[in-house]
Amino acid sequence: MDWNWAQADWPNFTYDRDALEPLEMAFLRSSGEVVGAVRHIGDEEDKQLRIELLSEEAIKTSEIEGETLDRLSVQSSLRRQFGLATDDRPIRPQERGIAEMMVDVYERWHTPLDEETLFRWHAMLMAGNRHIGIPLPEAMEQSRHRSLQQASSYYNSATRRSGRAARLL
């Protein structure tokens, strides 16, 4: 299956409402149960649940990209980002970056997703990464792409390994 942004009709999606309705109803029922349960937990449990959920998402997201992160380091970095008590464990830049991005997503979920936000997240994720030598805007420029849509299509292509931007990495 292709990524969303690699679909021919990106970003103009279509869907079958009738096919999705039973799934949506099941999701809403489950969500209601979770919301009801969360309302009965205390402040400390709420903070721990937030750390668990965000760290799980960060780790799974990184696994998709082939990156293995240390769960305890990600959680420690998330605690630090939220101003919570943490240990003094060493945290690699990748774990710090994904934690910073997850907190940004958590705190700014209601704001529109724009290029500035994507570039900010990219900078967070790539901080300290020696395998990626150039920032996303420069990669787009070097590969002659003028939009994120063009760049994402390029980077999803099997021929990207021989492209100009790929040689810079």
Summarize the structure.
The chain is an all-alpha fold. Helix content is 61%, strand content 0%.
Describe this entry's structure for a reader.
The chain has helices at 17-38, 43-64, 71-81, 93-107, 115-126, 136-142, 148-156, 164-168. The protein has 169 residues and is mainly α. Helix 2 (43-64) packs across helix 3 and helix 3 crosses helix 4 (93-107).
Which helices and strands appear, and what pairs or packs with what?
Layout: H1 17-38, H2 43-64, H3 71-81, H4 93-107, H5 115-126, H6 136-142, H7 148-156, H8 164-168
Helix pairs in contact: 2-3, 2-4, 3-4, 4-5
SS strand fraction: under 5%
Oligomer: single chain
CA radius of gyration:
19 Å
Mean pLDDT: 79
Total of helices = 8
Low-confidence stretches: 158-169
For the termini, the CA-CA separation is: 26 Å
Total beta strands: 0
Task: Name its key features.
mainly alpha; globular; 8 helices; 169 residues; 0% strand
